[in-house]
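Provenance and format

Records in this collection were gathered into a single text stream. Each protein contributes a sequence line and a token line. The two records reproduced below are adjacent in the stream.
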Amino acid sequence: MFAANQVQARTERSSKSADTHLQWMRTHRQLLIWLGLIAAFTLLLWFTVLAALDRPIQRAEISGKFTQVSKLQIEQVLEPFAHRGFISIDLAAVKKSIEQIPWIEYARVERAWPDGLRVMVTEQTAIARWGEKGLLNGRGELFLPEARDVPKDLPLLEGPEGASGQVAKLYLDTYARLLAIGLRISHVALDERGAWVLNLSNGVEVRLGSQDISARLERFITAANVVVTRAGEVRYVDMRYSNGFSIGWGGAHAGSSAAQNEGSDDHV
């Protein structure tokens, strides 16, 4: 009997709640209708404005300093995006497509009111060759493994597969310091055993070996005045000593002489 009374009480409360809700809706029916109309009008207005603004792309303004890439190449990449909506076009996708062009380092893409795109590109700058056909940029990245035309005046860097970043780092860390004392690097080689050799543009070979490369470079730079002042007589400088180096002379001074040598540690 008690349980039946509880069920009846709950039913009466539910009925009263439903009646209250219906009464509130009847009282505020006009307000709800107005709110619905306003929402529908706002949504319609939004889609109307969007449709008006999202007119098809008709033009592209392309700018940049072009030496390796032509505007025509960029226009061809943009063709699949022609007539996309001004608002709905995916600018990130356009940017990514342009940056797939091998010589493009960076692209900035913006909307140009009312129906165009503004594209600004920056080309890669090749600072060295990698092997026979590769090109490295200023960050030491191999941005073009198979270049059609490789500038022969660029320094040549060589090494085992996958070592381009390591070789480029040594070149970039050393190039400016040697240039400051009148020496220019023309070739950097890392062999399979981990031994380094630098060739200078004046024909001098610098043998660094495979150990303590940073320390040996420092010693070479400190003693490089010999190479600067007598470059025509020096064939090579061998830095593969624990504390010193040896010089291989050419011409009338053919042979070698040592300076501060205290034993060779990784001659091969």
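Adjacent record:
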Amino acid sequence: MDELKRKLIEIVGEENVLSAPEDLLVYECDAETLDLARPELVVLPGSTDEVSRVVALAAANGIAFSPRGAGTGLSGGATTVGGGLSLVLTRMTRVLSVDQFNRVAVAEVGATNLSISQAARRFGLYFAPDPSSQMASTIGGNIAENAGGPHCLKYGMTTQHVLGAKVVLPDGQVVELGGKSRDLLSLDLLGLMVGSEGTLGVVTEAVLRLIPVAQSVETMLAYFPSVEDCGQAVSDIVAVGVIPAAMEMVDQLTLNAVEDHLHMGLKRDAAALLIVELDGPDVGISAQREVVEKAARNNKVMGITWANNEAERLRIWKARKAAFGALGRISPHGYVLDGVIPRSKLAEAIRKIALIGAKHDLTIANVYHAGDGNLHPCILYHRDDLDEVRRVVIAGREILELCVDLGGTLSGEHGIGIEKILEMPLVFSEQDIEAMRWVKNAFDPANLANPAKVLPNPKSCGESGGRPLLRHQILTGC
């Protein structure tokens, strides 16, 4: 490692190679804090050329590397389970260009999600994917996990908004996939790269699709006496043909935590809060607004408030995006899940998740991308209580099993990472997983690019890669 460190310093500079224990401690996990694995070295390259040289050096020495952005990921995708290098791309923050005529931006992957929209705002354009962490999360992380956010209901996931990418392959070779328009005449390697969680290569630059800011935006806050009534209102809105830009649902526990935090005057006695946002041409918005209100009133709504201006709209969204942070007032740790269910099963899923919480004596707060059935149950716990941690891990698995049993899947936007790797066989057959291994092997035959992520290792017992993880010890008994 001393020799490797010396060569890395030659590439990126001494200040951009970290090896002190107190520095490495910062990089032992991402926002999925149950599983810890400290890297041997942290490297912060500043350009595609430096990334290429670092990866080539790692490949020549058989050293694993895990790409990392802001560390806001919730499935352990940036955790260095295989040891080696944490390849941190947060120095690469430039928005290189905004083309208002072709409606695209080109950015380095360390640029934050929000910075793309800020750069495009003067042209009346913005970048649609908007995860709750958009102020901090990087474009590289968004691409790795195929991030979504509240507005993906109408506008789609990150993969719908990435037109091209510059990628460093696991041997250090640099390739360009796509461009200012999707290449539909050959293998969709770009589509393969988006959502691959750094297991096939390292994206260093991206060409991003921008969309025009809507003429009109209407944002509603509605309260319901039960989550079942709220869930039915969501189904009714979509059933009549209205596709809002976003439909977000928050339960009473989370609502009260947000109110304690922000003092917005939210109705504490409501069992569920629903945010519905409509956008589009001025013509038609009023008709959609009537439909949404009717669906809410048909389902025992306790109160409806519409934002009167942009400031009020942003205040409503602040409440939603502060939800998980506000839960820190209740418990010091939270494990946020990411299961997906059919929208029609929303009320049933909520009821059964509550039963799982009661069974394991756990408090579960719930936030939902209700419009597309993406659930975010947050299990609250104390990290130093090992018995509680054990119950959290087991309950988390039962919630994912429930989602699959209801006709859903394991992840809507957080990815598989190390968090759901043992649950992959719930959705995919061994033949499916073997086909995925073939793809991984085609790009990374030495298995150095973010190893032990996404694909279960059939030979491991209680481990993921080379380092034992607490969740896998609990779930496998090894």
